[in-house]
Specification:
alpha+beta, 4-stranded antiparallel sheet, 15 helices
Length: about 450
């Protein structure tokens, strides 16, 4: 039975590690060695990582790979991807190369609006609160000027502010609904600071509003927070070519392939069980680049999946059609990203990833991320509708199995020769290794 610990955050890093090792491991010395094995040898760099979060004991590494040959709006990119799943980077690179000879990807930012809300309770007359808001709206916005001045110089700031009456859904519930332009920053801290100032000013203005009764002067602010649902911060990514141009080694009948792929997408449009896995494949590409560039993949995931449900039913993010002999594959997704602030100027590999991408603006990064997601989706659909998803995936996954069993170079050579002509599965590989070692 493990014990609770008091004052863990006040312990030194060494003390935290020692406590964890003694409390949870039969061999504390081995646990400590493993934890410290992943420390960076550069003390300054390790301290930088230690300061990213609280109670740091080590670093958790994920592979960082490159998917080259992405032709986006007539410009080539090598896309950095951070992910642990086998075959994702290979699939993205394969799609990128496929489409680079067929006109490449087209990407367009359709909007960059971010959203934040002040949620509050008002128990007075509904008409009076609306009149009050109309009177004080300019004062509320003006109260944030010290926070928005620098952003306004870059062309950003608060773009609109409205009062929303939500009492039909929750008794006495109102909100200030604000929209923002944050340019090249993701803008979370900026938005939240503005919202908290709006909330403070709202309470002050209400307490001094002459037409309110005494009880109406007490506006109860519940919380002030940005929203990660950004349905007007949208990027469109697409590819298209003549149906016959889809032909390649594994696509002997391009018309049949195109029709089958369109059907696969339509299934994901109407069947939520398929749509979730379909969209997960898109997010393999999206999250990989979001992570590599130091952005918040949890926020992106939440916003994208909410968007996939915006019509009342969870559905495919991507779409496909054949029209007048032309195959078109596209999607529109919400992406609130930044290329300044946060980890973008702190994490050395994030800085390197942005350098590889040519120091993109936030809008350009939106396009690159969306295109990578679409490429990943195309790769998955191509596999599913031709050879099946497991053939390529297991060929990549076999390395994990070989590492798990600490195979020698000689064993690896024999294993790979054998499975060039035999079906790969975890049990088959394990069985072959065991037979080799008898």
């Amino acid at each position: 039975m493990n014990n609770a610990v008091a004052g863990f955050s006040k312990l030194t890093k060494e003390e935290k590690i020692n406590w964890i090792a003694k409390e949870y491991f039969a061999n504390p010395a081995e646990a400590i060695e493993t934890i410290k094995q992943y420390w960076n040898s550069d003390a300054k760099l390790q301290q930088l990582h230690d300061d990213f979060i609280e109670n740091t004991i080590s670093n958790f590494y994920l592979p960082m790979g490159i998917a080259p040959n992405f032709l986006v709006n007539n410009r080539y990119y090598s896309v950095p991807m951070v992910i642990e799943e086998s075959s994702v980077v290979a699939a993205a690179a394969k799609s990128a190369k496929f489409w680079s000879t067929r006109g490449g990807f087209k990407a367009t930012v359709l909007g960059t609006e971010k959203i934040g809300q002040v949620h509050f309770i008002f128990k007075g007359n509904h008409d009076k609160i609306q009149t009050f808001f109309n009177v004080v709206k300019s004062n509320l916005i003006a109260s944030t000027e010290s926070l928005t001045a620098n952003m306004q110089k870059r062309g950003g700031g608060i773009t609109s502010l409205e009062l929303r009456n939500k009492t039909h859904e929750l008794e006495h519930y109102f909100q200030l609904h604000a929209t923002f332009e944050t340019k090249d920053s993701m803008g979370a801290n900026f938005i939240n600071s503005c919202l908290e100032q709006l909330a403070k000013s709202l309470k002050e203005e209400a307490s001094n509003y002459a037409d309110f009764d005494v009880s109406e002067k007490e506006v109860n602010v519940v919380m002030s927070i940005l929203s990660n649902y950004v349905p007007n911060c949208i990027v469109r990514a697409e590819v298209s070519c003549k149906v016959e141009e889809l032909a390649e080694k594994k696509i002997e009948d391009p018309r049949e392939f195109a029709e089958k792929l369109v059907q696969a997408v339509r299934i994901a449009e109407i069947e939520p069980y398929r749509a979730v896995t379909h969209n997960k494949g898109i997010m393999n590409g999206v999250d990989s680049v979001v992570l590599a560039t130091g952005n918040d993949f949890r926020a992106v995931e939440a916003g994208v999946h909410a968007y996939a449900s915006r019509n009342g039913k969870y559905s495919s993010l991507s779409h496909a059609k054949i029209e007048n002999g032309l195959f078109t594959f596209w999607m529109e997704i919400p992406l609130a990203l930044g290329t300044v602030g946060g980890l973008t100027s702190l994490h050395p590999l994030v800085k390197m990833a942005l350098e590889i991408l040519g120091k993109p603006s936030a809008q350009e990064l939106m396009q690159i991320v969306a295109v990578t997601g679409l490429a990943q989706n195309f790769a998955a659909l191509r596999s599913l509708t031709t050879t099946g998803i497991q053939e390529g995936h297991m060929k990549m996954h076999i390395n994990n199995i070989l590492n798990q069993f600490q195979t020698t170079p000689e064993e690896r050579k024999l294993i790979k020769i054998h499975f060039d002509n035999n079906t790969i599965s975890h049990s088959a590989v394990v069985s072959f290794i065991e037979n080799l070692r008898k």
